[in-house]
User: What shape does this take?
Amino acid sequence: MYIIATSSADTYITNKIVDGIRVEDANVGRAGTLDLFKLYGETMSGSSSGHTELSRILIKFDLTRLMTLASSSFDVNSSTFKAKLRLQSIESNLPTPRNFTVSVFPLAKNFNEGDGRDVSAFSDIDNCSFLNSSVGVTWAISGAFASGAVGDVGIDYFASGNLSDGLGLRSLESKQSFVEGNEDLLVDISSVVSATLAGTIPNHGFILSFTSSQENDLVTRFVKRFASRHVTHESLRPRLEVHANNSIFDSHANSFFDVSGSLFLRNFAGSSQLNILSASSPISGNNCLKITLSTGSFSTTVSASQQAIGSARISGSYVGSYYISAQDSSVVSGTVTLSDHIQSSGSIVFSEKWKSNDGSVIFHSTFLTCSLPVKTTFDAVPRQLRVHTTNSRSKYQKNQMHRLRAFAYDSNYEPGSSRVPRPTRSDAPEAYFRVKDLDGKVYIPFERQDGGTRLSFDAGGLFFDFYTDGLPSGRLLTIDYLIIDRSSEYLIEDRNVRFTVE
Assistant: This one.
């Protein structure tokens, strides 16, 4: 799962000196840039030089949709859950500082963006400023300087906290160093976002600044600019990139001996996915079903549970894991053992039955074909895999999820002859997707490290959930695939997919 949340409010606050007078009540909520700067040695009317001006950036994201998905699509406590804050650098005619570090902390107080636009005289007075978080509400310390721990009152931002994840009290600071000064900001704020979605930290947004030591030294840093949510080009706006590996691999279409596999069962009543009923009681929880795999006299039984994402259970979805050894000596028929049967045929069709725990009720019956893993002598020529999206559209709406199916095949494969038509099944390689425009700008990258864009596999082939949140409107977009197969990598552009998000 990969989803982009765009900022719902952003601005910067400053105690700029204009014409010798300190201006702390100015609002720039509608400015096209988010400016981070520090000026040392400035002069004020009636006093000598040595005064410091600085700014801090405030930004907030609407996490309502992510909170909804957290109970059904991903686990905020998973090690694969990641959330990254991205601000894109804006070039200007002004110099850019080098060798500085930006700190990011979660805000403890809400702020109202405001409609100010004056970034020259700083004359617009409205809502958020260096003095106020909103009209009539002041910061605990001017400039939102008051820090504390999660749960403290009378502070402006959380510098530390116990996030109830077993790690105890720790710093909540995220940092990025800028060497050249023209880099984008991309910081990992996974622990804070996870705690926010879990309700441990209030969703008031984030505050960005130079580090404490750099704010207080005798160096001028002017000016680092990022695009705000009001910039004309939608693709430059701030975003929160959230991803987690929620891919599944159902072995019904691709099952092997000597390899652990997972079998999924989904129960539908009309268009609704509901728990199976047994004597009017829903079947749910751990080890609530049994799966029996049998052929001839051989039979093995494993437990199945209701599918879970974190602590949340998915209605009507069940999964069980199995393992069958190719060296199993159990008798299948007469003196023929399972291993004899496997060696002679290479594959076996098992009868698969999903039963109540006492075995008295069969809820589903099907077949599972299990084969030997492919073993081959050295082959210097890799397979020529191709991937096509089979159900793409030309237009998608914003903030929607669409389940897309992809078909993978080896273009060099020549099927054997058959008297009856046989359906062609998709290959099941390790596969990832990305979304980019025709100019090459990537909006959803291949997220391999944590599996955020990994494709799932079921009886129908490869599939993935595509979220249109945060994608730019009106741009012509396409989908690429990264395939990892037998130690080879393939970058494949699906040239049949062209779409816009409206």
Notes: The chain has four helices and 40 strands.
